[in-house]
Design brief:
By secondary structure, the chain is α+β, with helices and mostly antiparallel strands. It contains 6 helices and 8 strands. It has helices at 3-24, 28-46, 50-76, 136-146, 155-168, 206-219, and strands spanning 83-85, 95-99, 117-118, 128-131, 172-180, 183-190, 223-231, 234-241. It has an 8-stranded antiparallel sheet with strand order 3-4-2-1-7-8-6-5. The longest helix has 27 residues, at 50-76. The chain starts with a helix and ends in an 8-residue tail after the last strand.
């Protein structure tokens, strides 16, 4: 039970007791004091907690970005889902490549920090858009918490640190990652309701993006998003391992 509920209930109880005493003794001062106590308890009950404010602020920041990226993806007619690329020489912080076609190829040798639209390629299947992951700053927080880089660690390390940091920031209740040979099953319980997840397969919010980018960095593999699904227990992500940078050179 929150502190505000305890304080509000106590004030209401005291207010009712004083109000009854005032009525029984025909004492206007006690009646007014009792009414004031009940009113004050109602005011305290309506005060929004800091936890609510944090969630509300997160939503107000996230929703405009997600709406913008949804329009961006629709206007470019990008058919493929996101591929999370681990850091390497061309992309020191990694990146997210959204292929133009569902059946795609990635020539990572052509990518760099200045690339946005990759069109100057031999085949249409290599075309797409390169974005800086929205979750890159959260990923830095994970590594600050660990006091070392996630590079070449493990999915279990990502699960542990992402869960701890996102809980501390009031962004998610839990993070669960299951290694399934050539793929990952990720379940994230955000602290707020995700209105829609279809756009997340191409551009995920910073919370989900940070976990997927963390997996790419920890395993040193390209991670392809197969699906996002809204479940009773959270957001379930299925992602496939595509191999390391050298395999895509």
């Amino acid at each position: 039970m929150e502190l505000k509920h305890i304080v509000s209930g106590s004030l209401a109880g005291i207010g009712v007791a004083i109000l009854l005493y005032g009525f029984l003794n025909v004492n206007t001062s006690y009646i007014n004091l009792g009414i004031a106590g009940i009113f004050l308890s109602a005011v305290i009950l309506t005060i929004k907690s800091s936890e609510y404010i944090k969630k509300d602020a997160a939503l107000r920041i996230l929703i405009p970005y997600m709406n913008l990226f949804e329009k961006f993806v629709d206007n470019l007619s990008l058919e493929g889902n996101a591929v999370y690329i681990p850091p390497y020489q061309n992309l020191p912080e990694g990146g997210v490549f959204i292929p133009l076609k569902e059946n795609f190829e990635i020539d990572v040798g052509r990518l760099n920090e200045k690339t946005v639209f990759l069109t100057d390629v031999p085949k249409e299947s290599q075309m797409g858009t390169l974005l800086t992951p929205l979750g890159v700053e959260l990923l830095k927080k994970y590594e600050e918490h660990l006091e070392y880089s996630l590079s070449n660690t493990s999915y279990a390390e990502v699960e542990s640190v992402a869960g701890a940091v996102l809980r501390a920031l009031g962004l998610a209740k839990s993070v669960y990652i299951e290694d399934q040979e050539n793929s990952f099953r990720v379940v994230i319980q955000p602290e707020f309701k995700c209105k829609k997840v279809d756009v997340c397969e191409k551009v995920a919010c910073p919370i989900c993006s940070s976990v997927l980018l963390g997996l790419a960095k920890a395993t040193n593999q390209l991670i392809y998003v197969e699906s996002f699904e809204k479940k009773d227990y959270g957001i379930e992500i299925k992602a496939r391992k595509l191999g390391g940078i050298r395999e895509w050179m």
